[in-house]
Specification:
261 residues; alpha+beta; Sortase, Chain: A; elongated
Length: 261
């Protein structure tokens, strides 16, 4: 009887030890994943901070150019003004008799070339704002490597190779929907409705789009990144069923809109 009691106690002790070790392993693994995510978040924040420094320098240059543009236009206009001095036309006999005085011919009115408004040249997208779903997030470049885009963590990614605003193409941004290690920047994208505003904050100012459509496509459908020939923006995030073997969702939620006037 005593041996049976000791065996039971030993089995319980072993089970407790296994459960304790398992719990500690899970705790350590969770902490390691969290620390790795925080490390990557800090790296992204440093990248954004460096870019904001560049953005302030770009804004200073842009402000100087905006001040100099009217001066440049005035100097250009002045350089094209031609003043013609025309010799007086008179009737010789009348002058000889003292009846008439020379009357100068009117010179042609000088004309200045029309000043054409400059089209903004966008080099970089800084942030995306969709106020209807309280989205306000930084944007960095999503690099294309090994046949796919690397969606950045904790921020939205502008897919490398897709258009920038005012290039007449498709500006494609992607973001994670829900992840402990990657963030959830586009978690509320399914709440966007037709007509909602999408604002891209760029080095050339804020560009506004209006949502004109949404759809769910398979996760391997890259046609949503193609250009339709219109000035538009496309937002992509994961949806559908999560497959732990591939660490991916089965589908993509796609929202698109066209640039307003």
């Amino acid at each position: 009887m005593a041996n049976s009691s000791n065996a039971t106690r030993t089995g319980r002790d072993r089970l407790a030890s296994v459960l304790t070790a398992t719990g500690l392993t899970i705790l350590v693994a969770t902490f390691a994943v969290w620390m790795f995510g925080e490390f990557e978040r800090a790296a992204v924040e440093r990248q954004i901070e460096d870019r904001e420094i560049r953005a302030r320098a770009t804004a200073t240059v842009a402000a100087f150019e905006s001040v100099m543009q009217p001066v440049e236009a005035m100097l250009t206009a002045t350089a094209h003004v031609r003043v013609d001095f025309v010799a007086p036309t008179v009737i010789p006999a009348a002058i000889a008799e003292g009846v008439a005085t020379p009357v100068p011919e009117p010179a042609a009115t000088p004309t200045a070339p029309a000043v054409v408004a400059r089209q903004p040249v966008i080099r970089e997208i800084y942030r995306i704002l969709v106020r209807s779903i309280e989205l306000d997030a930084p944007v960095i470049v999503s690099r294309f490597r090994k046949g796919e885009w690397e969606v950045p963590k904790f921020v939205a990614g502008h897919l490398e190779g897709t258009a920038l605003p005012f290039q007449g193409g498709n500006v494609v941004l992607s973001g994670h929907v829900q992840s402990l290690t990657s963030g959830n920047v586009f978690a509320r994208l399914d709440g966007v409705k037709l007509g909602d505003e999408i604002v891209l904050r760029t080095d050339g100012g804020d560009i506004t789009y209006r949502v004109t459509g949404r759809n769910v496509v398979p996760n391997n459908d890259v046609s949503v990144t193609y250009s339709s020939g219109r000035e538009e923006v496309t937002l992509i995030t994961c949806t559908g069923t999560f497959n732990p073997l591939t660490n991916d969702y089965s589908h993509r939620l796609v929202v698109w809109g066209e640039r307003g006037p």
